[in-house]
Design a protein that fits this description.
Layout: H1 3-38, E1 49-54, E2 58-61, E3 64-67, E4 78-80, E5 86-93, E6 96-104, E7 115-117, E8 124-129, E9 132-137, E10 146-151, H2 160-164, E11 169-170, E12 176-177, H3 180-211, H4 214-228, H5 232-251, H6 259-283, H7 287-295, H8 300-311, H9 313-329, H10 332-337, H11 355-362, H12 369-402
Helix pairs in contact: 1-12, 3-6, 3-9, 4-6, 5-6, 6-9, 7-8, 9-12, 11-12
């Protein structure tokens, strides 16, 4: 085997390893996201009720003694048997002991009555969240409250009735995870951006490819390429300082942040992508097409729209796909101009929150089921982009067959 063949084999194996690793990494990421996003719809938040003490040195549950220091460092809680609904909890701190008789009724429709104290030792129950209850005893020393939290497992969330088609998004208190308003906000903001941005981008691309003088066009193209590389936060800052105040002034709304601002900033952001790729596709059409059309007596405008534009439709559809995908997946600019209100907008100036904004705003503090629900939101976003691209590709295929 010669030297060149050895070098070729080494590089071929190297490329094979790199490409295989990239594909496996991509598959692993997608698998991880889908697994995390599917967990809330198939499993409960915990296998049993958790009792989490605070301000207590030791305590006992139904005569079984626990010391706070003996609990696992990464799990300062005690699991209670769910089939047992009555508990006698004795806890002591600073030489003071109190016994409270509790009753836990998970089937009670009234949230406030699911946990109650049967004894009269002065304890009280409060629920900081719908599935978390605080049982505390004030004690003889002011400010020295002691007690425990009772964390009740949350049953699996119904994908359709409680997630995809539900309207209420209150993940931290009521544990409601309805994302329909955010799905619609994402859809309508993207649709508005496409309606405005795609025609403007295509008209600009035709002008740059067919009509603008070559010397001027060189600088204009460089400027458009520069716009494509501007970070999203810069576009968001522009929208916050220019578009939002303008809409507020024109519409006399309480705030200019809302659906209309989101549509306009997304349309501006997708323009460089649509213009650049479409213009490159138009310029790639063979010169013979133009010359043949002009020789038959067509004007330059007719040649551009009737001959050159249809011949470049493959690249034009690719530009629309990429521009639309950027609009769907945009996060930072949307956060700055959309108002971030998870509600159904009644007007163009009402605040909205998209799927990407929800993930970015809440991932930093989300815990437990809330955290995994955000992965579920990411899956819905992924499926939306997949459906959108599939529709465009089907249209592209039909247009190709018809021509």
């Amino acid at each position: 085997m010669g030297r060149k063949q050895v070098i070729d084999k080494i590089f071929r194996n190297f490329f094979l390893v790199v490409s295989t690793s990239s594909v496996l990494a991509l598959i692993a990421i997608i698998f991880f996201v889908f697994v995390q996003g599917a967990i809330p719809f198939f499993t409960s938040t915990a296998p049993s009720i958790h009792l989490i003490p605070f301000g207590i040195n030791e305590f006992s549950v139904n005569s079984e003694l626990y010391r706070f220091d003996d609990l696992p460092r990464n799990a300062k809680y005690v699991e209670l048997e769910q089939q047992c609904e009555s508990y006698s909890v004795l806890f002591s701190n600073n030489d003071e002991s109190v016994t409270l008789a509790l009753e836990i009724d998970l089937d009670n429709d009234v949230v406030a009555d699911r946990v109650s104290i049967l004894s009269s030792d002065g304890g009280e129950v409060d629920y900081t969240e719908e599935y978390v209850y605080e049982v505390k005893y004030k004690g003889t020393i002011a400010g020295q409250e002691s007690g425990f939290y009772i964390a009740i497992p949350q049953t699996p969330t119904n994908f359709f009735s409680e997630f995809l088609f539900a309207l209420d998004w209150r993940p931290t208190y009521n544990k409601q995870y309805g994302i329909l308003t955010m799905v619609l906000a994402t859809f309508f903001s993207t649709l508005g951006a496409v309606v405005i941005g795609v025609p403007m981008g295509l008209l600009t691309a035709v002008f740059l490819a067919e009509f603008i003088p070559k010397g001027v066009g060189r600088y204009v193209r460089a400027g458009i390429d520069l716009l494509a590389g501007i970070p999203s936060v810069v576009y968001g800052f522009f929208g916050l300082m220019m578009i939002v105040p303008l809409i507020k002034k024109i519409s006399n709304a309480a705030s200019g942040s809302g659906l209309l601002s989101a549509v306009l900033i997304l349309a501006i952001m997708m323009l460089p992508t649509v213009i650049s790729i479409s213009e490159t596709s138009l310029r790639a059409v063979p010169r013979a097409y133009r010359e043949g059309s002009l020789a038959l007596g067509a004007t330059k405008m007719q040649t551009s729209w009737k001959v050159v534009f249809p011949a470049a439709k493959s690249g034009i559809l690719a530009s629309i796909i990429l521009g639309t995908s950027r609009a769907v997946g945009e996060t930072m600019a949307i956060i700055m101009v959309a108002g971030n209100s998870p509600q159904m907008p009644g007007r163009l100036t009402d605040g909205i929150r998209t799927l990407t904004a929800t993930i970015a705003l809440e991932m930093g503090y989300a815990q437990g089921r809330h955290n995994r629900i955000l992965f579920s939101v990411g899956i819905v976003l992924f499926v939306m982009i997949l459906i959108l691209n599939t529709i465009i590709l089907v249209l592209k295929k039909r247009m190709t067959e018809e021509s």
